[in-house]
Design a protein that fits this description.
Number of strands: 0
Order of helices and strands: HHHHHHHHHHHHHHH
Strand content: under 5%
Shape: globular
Distance between the termini: 79 Å
Helix content: over 70%
Structural class: mainly alpha
Radius of gyration: 23 Å
């Protein structure tokens, strides 16, 4: 909030938001291959340590003079990017390896996405509560509490869940295909692009909507900025586990198509709702658009991760670390370019046309999701299951003779 009332509001907020995603994107370029060779234990543990250090840095940045404070927070945000890459890519790759069955994999990844959404839902109100309750330096406490929880998490990993699991037993054998080779696959590239533009909407929202409300609400209360994204994250939390479980039956490409269409509707309608309604009602009316964005993003996120794992598995090899790294890189790139470029685009065409343009791009990309129809794994009973079922039906229901 200290940067919302300066002249370069959009630029500073864009840099703070984008730096996290930029470092996360760079980290993923190397992380996927390391996970494919050495497993997910090391990245998960290192990610918690990095997150503990980054939140501690941000909590202590308030003691530094205003000129240098921005750069200290920037360093903390960049370190958070490293931890995000380790946690997301490492965790999803671990789930992809643990659940080879497509339906079980989708359900597990959907639940994991729910955890990500729950953190994004609880985080802003949790931080806003300390800011608005009149506690001295209350903004520090959420970061310090989070640093303690991360340290506790890392300790539990070291004691309970630490395992060194190299994927390839032969030291001379190299995992086939790097991220740069995999992304040349047209299907992987298409999934990358669709996921990039879908998540780019949220990247732009997080960087521009609070500043926009700050200029039009004069200014909004601290709790408003804390809960402004609740209408988007709550539907996200509800959509990800359900779609992760049930989209396997109709095809994950439907999740990409419907999710892109719903995000398009929410994104394109938001600036018109802001302009049409009076100031006192804007906060509640835009919840409709934000809810559409949340549901749509939940459909896309819960579909793209298991879908890319299936594409890589069928067309290349079981390189789950690289497939998850590609998906996370597209998200990171969206949250890196979206906040940074949105400020310049708003200066060029205005707030309204930025959001309308994003909706138009997603509307044009949505039909391309049907190219993934051939990767739909319809769950059919195996010959063993059919034989067992047939024997069960033919077996006479006679009492057991002793």
């Amino acid at each position: 909030p200290a940067y919302l009332n300066n002249e370069n509001d959009y630029l500073r907020m864009g840099i703070l938001f984008g730096s996290n995603a930029g470092i996360q994107m760079i980290t993923n370029l190397f992380l996927g291959r390391l996970i494919d060779r050495y497993g997910s234990s090391y990245p998960l543990f290192g990610g918690m340590i990095a997150l503990c250090a980054s939140t501690t840095i941000i909590a202590l940045a308030g003691d530094i003079n205003y000129t240098n404070r921005f750069y200290i927070v920037l360093v903390g945000r960049m370190l958070q990017g490293v931890s995000s890459a380790c946690a997301t890519t490492g965790g999803m790759a671990w789930l992809a390896t643990l659940f080879p069955d497509d339906e079980q994999r989708g359900e597990a990844m959907g639940k994991a996405m729910t955890g990500i959404g729950l953190g994004a839902l609880v985080g802003p109100p949790f931080g806003a509560a300390f800011t608005t309750l009149g506690v001295d330096d209350g903004w520090r406490y959420p970061f310090l509490i989070l640093a303690f929880l991360c340290l506790l998490n890392a300790g539990l990993q070291a004691v309970l869940a630490w395992s060194s699991l190299p994927v390839f037993e032969d030291e001379d054998e190299e995992p086939g295909g790097s991220i740069f080779q995999l992304v040349r696959d047209p299907y992987i590239a298409l999934g990358f692009v669709i996921n990039f533009f879908a998540n780019g909407v949220m990247g732009v929202l997080e960087a521009t909507l609070p500043t926009r409300l700050n200029h039009t609400y004069h200014p909004p209360a601290g709790w408003v900025l804390g809960v402004i994204f609740v209408p988007s994250m709550l539907p996200y939390i509800l959509a990800t586990p359900l779609s992760g479980k049930y989209l396997t039956r109709i095809g994950r490409y439907w999740g990409l198509f419907l999710g892109s269409a719903v995000i398009c509707a929410g994104c394109a309608s938001l600036p018109f709702l802001l302009d049409y309604f009076h100031t006192g009602h804007k906060i509640w009316v835009i919840s409709i658009s934000l809810a559409c964005c949340g549901v749509g993003l939940g459909l896309v996120d819960s579909s793209i991760m298991p879908l890319m794992a299936t594409v890589v598995e069928k067309r290349h090899a079981a390189l789950y670390g690289s497939s998850c790294a590609i998906v996370d890189t597209s998200v990171s790139l969206a949250f890196f370019l979206g906040p940074i470029c949105s400020g310049y685009i708003i200066d060029l065409v205005g707030f309204k046309w930025l959001y309308v343009g994003q909706g138009a791009l997603l509307f044009a990309l949505a039909p391309f999701a049907f190219f993934f129809r051939q990767f739909h794994c319809s769950r059919e009973p195996s010959s063993q299951d059919q034989t067992g079922e047939t024997q069960r039906l033919l077996k006479p229901n006679t009492p057991e003779v002793s």
